[in-house]
Amino acid sequence: MKKFDAHNRYIVLPVREETTLMEFLIKQMSGTSRNRVKDLLRGHAITVDRKITTQFDTVLKTGQLVQVRRHKQNVELNNKYVRLIYEDKDLVVIEKQPGILSQGMSETQYCVKKVLDEYFRRRQFKCSAHVVHRLDRETSGLMIYAKSTEIQQTLEQDWQQVVYDRRYVALVSGCMEREGGIIRSWLHEGPGFKTLSCPTDDGGREAVTYFHTLQAEDDYSLVEFRLETGRKNQIRVHMQQIGHPVAGDQKYGDGRNPLGRLALHAFRLHFFHPRTGQPMEFDTPIPRLFQQRFKSRQIHEEISDDSEN
């Protein structure tokens, strides 16, 4: 039986048997054409268990709930710097491109938060984007933004427990001598807002980085990182410390910039949902530009699933 929610303006359809989303909607919404269903999907008008779904061949299982808005929403997030990966009532996960701040220094400065706030406004959502963690302007990759201060505070206060796997990949200068290891130091801010590293406790903040070499040649290496701590510029400072700075790093690099950008990408973000406790796992491919510096573009080592690398 269809249940219409007048406040949120959508129809709730329980799934009674396994099927595909297209066949389910055509059967449940009599008189609706396949083209109309695809139009609704493209317009972000359909969710499965509160997750926006755009694939018509999504497999549905018994017990799931499909929600269909009466009208498609012509409010897709089309922005060259920000790609929407996931959205629910509490948070969004996005992929940021290099060249944009996570949060501006003023209300007028262009940043991911401003892009998301405008997206929410167009959707007539009474919420705004709350920054939970940051990526440097020139770093690309996955990020979470909360839709309320409640969710923001939950994520910030329990960050180490909520996020159980967060990783980066970088193109670094030189041939890495080791297959993997740990870099540990104490970081503090020096003159010119530059982060300084000390191998012993000098009163700074302890920083621990695990690294795993994926591919190494004479001029450059491709390296995966897992952070035990999340300090400002941690990977960039640690790679400078061991003599293999991230390519394209104007602050901590060696002047080499083969890609015309900082070659650092946050490719994995796995966390427990702050409200439901369900595991949420997001991964993006290694940027092709990072692999094009190698004679062999095959990655010889798999991305590690071992949290200790």
Features:
Structural Genomics Hypothetical 15.5 Kd Protein In mrcA-pckA Intergenic Region, Chain A; 309 residues; Pseudouridine synthase; 17% helix; elongated; disordered N terminus; alpha+beta
Largest sheet: 11 strands, mixed
Question: How would you name the oligomeric state of the polypeptide chains in this document?
Answer: single chain
Terminal-residue CA separation: 50 Å
- Kindly report the average pLDDT value: 87
> CATH superfamily assignment of the largest domain?
Pseudouridine synthase
Radius of gyration: 22 Å
Task: Explain how this protein is built.
By secondary structure, the chain is α+β, with helices and mostly antiparallel strands. The chain folds into three domains: about 5-70, Structural Genomics Hypothetical 15.5 Kd Protein In mrcA-pckA Intergenic Region, Chain A (Roll); about 80-155, Pseudouridine synthase (2-Layer Sandwich); about 160-290, Pseudouridine synthase (2-Layer Sandwich). It is built from seven helices and 18 strands. The protein has helices at about 20-30, 35-40, 110-120, 150-155, 160, 235-240, 290, and strands at about 5, 10-15, 20, 45-50, 50, 60, 65-70, 80-85, 90-95, 130, 140-145, 165-175, 180-190, 195-200, 205-215, 220-225, 265-270, 280-285. β17 (about 265-270) and β18 (about 280-285) form a beta hairpin. The model is unreliable at about 1-10 (pLDDT under 50).
